[in-house]
């Protein structure tokens, strides 16, 4: 028996050596795989943020995608799993800003290029650690093709898409209401906000002959429109456009009556004033009726000169003083407790201030229609099924997408702006110097793209659209596996932009996994101290144990509790497999020239077929569970136990059992390999099961399709 088997299985000693063996073989690259492989199988890795270390969620996606890739590679496909890293614009800049704060510095006092260069150095250094951790997780991806979202070829593709959208009148720069973070000084898309329930006061105020209610009296300076529902019987005496003089916060004003069906007749008195520059619903009403507005809260969250004596005050400070003034003027009728939803920055938690400012927007409705059709007609399958309804609802009610960010870290928007007449034009080649409208000098747009705009082009950008052999061979890709929480952030946008730019769907199947929670089913967070570091846990129990714990019992789209006890249980399973192999190889260290036992092999073939069916249908939790139960409870507990007496009596029966056990062990290793690649490859090497392939990595799958 091989001396290695005489010792307990040691994952720490095995895993790096085994991964190096795979990588040195070159078989992660599809063109190096043996045999005639004509049918491609492609997964483009969702690029992890390059700014830090991997967490349990990363370990899950790597495990699932590695299972798919290893399975298809063994099935004879030309399998490509293309790795990448994300510059993660806003998120990375936020991380770096915290670093600057600890150093007593601020990005607002830095030269823009200096800040960009510092973040690039920081990101590339962390990118090395992240990629080393991907290797430790067993990711059998093709490192020769890896991409970074700031690679020149990626930027070129992103610019090409932006230019085409501009030429097709699907992108525009306009003064629209955006979500503004006063801390980070940038706009955010609707999907980068978090809705939180807050308790505030609702203030009822006298506005001429009307009673209006608001939780934000600080935005009411300059309100000169009073809006009511056209069908509200209480206000039939008022007509659209009526002028009503009244006393208000800033003295005598004239209010104009507006009738709009967006008004909720059941809320308050059914009448409201609007602050178009500081509320999304108000802005839409103003747009429909051609109304103007003023900025009352500036980019720093302070009141502007419109607020008169309250100019320069922050919102919380100003609100109390404004309420006191309303009382003095006799305009405050009452106040009451009010629970409502507010939008906050998903990174810092501050309430976002809606602001009207010039930004680049993509018209989403024309892009959404083909994406909806692709899912509804079955070209793209979303797993789990219930996610299709969520996807459809979001795309049906989609709004234009703000893609510009006021940060340094990211892909610069290739456009020129005229500071005199506000004209903007896309300038990919950086040749335009004078404004075509007024002749004034044009300056480069200082904004960068929303990260999701560039990463939304990831599948075709990474494959070298439109002319590369990789694009022609591997696109459309087969599976996009990612978290259910970014179905809208990323998946929907990849479908829309992929169809728009290439005319083809970017992938055939979307597989969504849920969150990984701790053993008590609580969300993992550093503040709770319940975060599972995949590298540290693998050093303790082995990476195969972690991978099995992440997959068994984990259905698509649902959150899963992960405890150390569960991981430890699969460490025991890895040890069990090692001991099974020690027993079998001690009796059959090499191929046995004897007939095998058909009944035992037939039973095993049925299990193999079931595992294969589950894998084909993306039921990884069932596939892993079935091979686990067969290996432990049937092979170890029953077949091996009854074999002990047989093998100790030399003869044809013993020879037949030795041949059977060796065959079953070989195919068991194949079935387990996608899930537990390290221990299975180590046993395969020790057992010398193949005379043609040195690696289990490229062994044919035991069930022929």
Helical proportion, percent range: 40-55%
- How are the strands ordered across the major sheet? 6-5-14-16
Whole-angstrom Rg: 31 Å
Indicate the low-confidence ranges by residue numbers: none
Our measurement of the CA-to-CA distance between the termini, rounded to an integer number of angstroms, reads: 35 Å
Number of helical regions:
21
Which sheet architecture does the biggest sheet show?
Answer: 4 strands, antiparallel
The tally of beta strands, per DSSP, is: 25
Superfamily (CATH H level) name of the largest domain: HUPs
Query: Which oligomeric state applies?
Result: single chain
CATH topology (level 3) name of the largest domain: Rossmann fold
User: Structural class of the secondary structure composition?
Assistant: alpha/beta
Shape: elongated
The overall number of domains is: 3
The CATH architecture classification of the largest domain is 3-Layer(aba) Sandwich
Average pLDDT figure: 94
Q: Which class of the largest domain in CATH terms? A: Alpha Beta
Strand content: 15-25%
Note down, in words, how this protein is organized.
The protein has 705 residues and is an alpha/beta fold. It folds into 3 domains: 23-162 and 452-538, HUPs (Rossmann fold, 3-Layer(aba) Sandwich), CATH 3.40.50; 187-353, Alpha-Beta Complex (Isoleucyl-tRNA Synthetase, domain 2), CATH 3.90.740.10; 563-698, Isoleucyl-tRNA Synthetase, Domain 1 (Orthogonal Bundle), CATH 1.10.730. Helix content is 41%, strand content 19%. It contains 21 helices and 25 strands. A 4-stranded antiparallel β-sheet has the order 6-5-14-16. It has a 4-stranded mixed β-sheet with strand order 10-11-9-12, with no helix packed on it. Strand 18 (415-418) and strand 19 (424-426) form a beta hairpin. Helix 15 crosses helix 16 (543-551). The chain is elongated, with a radius of gyration of 31 Å. 44% of the residues are buried.
């Amino acid at each position: 028996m091989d001396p290695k088997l005489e010792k307990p299985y040691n994952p720490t000693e095995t895993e790096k050596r085994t991964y190096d063996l795979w990588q040195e073989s070159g078989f992660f690259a599809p063109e190096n795989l043996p045999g005639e492989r004509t049918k491609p199988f492609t997964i483009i890795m969702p690029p992890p943020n390059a700014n830090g270390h991997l967490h349990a969620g990363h370990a899950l996606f790597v495990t699932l995608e590695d299972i798919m890739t290893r399975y298809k590679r063994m099935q004879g496909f030309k399998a490509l799993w293309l790795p990448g890293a994300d510059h993660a614009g806003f998120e990375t800049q936020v991380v770096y800003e915290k670093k600057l704060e600890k150093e007593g510095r601020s990005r607002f006092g830095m030269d823009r290029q200096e800040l960009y260069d510092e973040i690039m150095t920081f990101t590339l250094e962390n990118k090395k650690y992240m990629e080393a951790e991907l290797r430790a997780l067993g990711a059998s991806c093709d490192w020769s093709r890896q991409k970074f979202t700031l690679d020149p070829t990626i930027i070129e593709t992103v610019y090409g898409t932006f230019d085409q959208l501009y030429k097709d009148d699907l992108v525009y720069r306009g003064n629209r209401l955006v979500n503004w973070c006063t801390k980070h000084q940038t706009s955010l898309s609707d999907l980068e906000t978090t809705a939180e329930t807050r308790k505030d006061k609702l203030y009822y105020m006298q506005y001429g002959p009307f009673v209006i209610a608001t939780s934000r009296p600080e935005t009411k300076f300059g309100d000169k429109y009073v809006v009511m529902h056209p069908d509200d019987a209480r206000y039939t005496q008022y007509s659209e456009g009526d002028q009503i003089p009244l006393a208000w916060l800033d003295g005598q004003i004239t209010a104009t009556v507006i009738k709009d069906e967006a008004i909720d007749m059941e809320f308050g008195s059914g009448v409201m004033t609007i602050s178009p520059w500081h509320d999304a619903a108000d802005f839409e009403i103003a747009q429909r009726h051609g109304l103007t507005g003023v900025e009352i809260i500036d980019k720093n969250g302070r009141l502007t000169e419109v607020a008169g004596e309250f100019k320069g005050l922050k919102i919380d400070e100003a609100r109390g003083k404004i309420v006191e003034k309303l009382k003095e003027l006799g305009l405050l009728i009452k106040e009451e407790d009010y629970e409502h939803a507010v939008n906050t920055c998903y990174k810092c938690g501050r309430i976002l201030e809606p602001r009207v400012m010039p930004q680049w927007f993509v018209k989403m409705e024309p892009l959404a229609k083909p994406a909806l059709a692709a899912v509804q007609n079955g070209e793209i399958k979303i797993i789990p099924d219930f996610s299709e309804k969520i996807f459809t609802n979001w795309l049906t009610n989609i709004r234009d997408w703000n893609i510009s960010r006021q940060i340094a870290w990211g892909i610069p928007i290739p456009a020129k702006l005229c500071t005199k007449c506000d004209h903007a034009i896309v300038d990919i080649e950086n040749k335009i110097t004078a404004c075509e409208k007024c002749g004034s000098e044009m300056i480069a747009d200082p904004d960068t793209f929303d990260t999701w705009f560039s990463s939304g082009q990831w599948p075709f950008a990474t494959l070298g659209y439109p002319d590369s052999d990789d694009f022609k061979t591997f696109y459309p890709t087969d599976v996009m596996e990612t978290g259910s929480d970014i179905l809208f952030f990323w998946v929907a946008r990849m479908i829309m932009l992929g169809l728009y730019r290439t005319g083809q769907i970017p992938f055939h199947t979307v597989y969504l996994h849920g969150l990984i929670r701790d053993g008590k089913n609580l969300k993992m967070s550093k503040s709770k101290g319940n975060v599972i570091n995949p590298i540290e846990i693998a050093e303790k129990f082995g990476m195969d144990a972690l991978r099995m714990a992440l997959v068994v019992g984990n259905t698509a789209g649902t959150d899963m509790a992960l405890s150390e006890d569960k991981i430890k249980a699969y460490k025991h399973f890895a040890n069990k497999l090692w001991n099974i192999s020690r027993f079998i190889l001690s009796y059959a260290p090499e191929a046995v020239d004897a007939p095998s036992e058909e009944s035992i092999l037939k039973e095993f073939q049925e299990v193999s077929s079931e595992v294969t069916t589950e894998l084909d249908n993306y039921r990884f939790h069932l596939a892993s569970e079935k091979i686990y139960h067969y290996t432990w409870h049937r092979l170890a507990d029953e077949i091996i136990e009854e074999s002990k007496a047989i093998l100790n009596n030399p003869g044809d029966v013993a020879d037949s059992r030795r041949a059977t056990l060796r065959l079953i062990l070989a195919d068991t290793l194949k079935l387990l390999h996608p899930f537990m690649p390290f221990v299975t490859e180590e046993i395969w090497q020790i057992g010398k099961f193949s005379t043609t392939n040195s690696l289990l990595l490229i062994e044919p799958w035991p069930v022929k399709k």
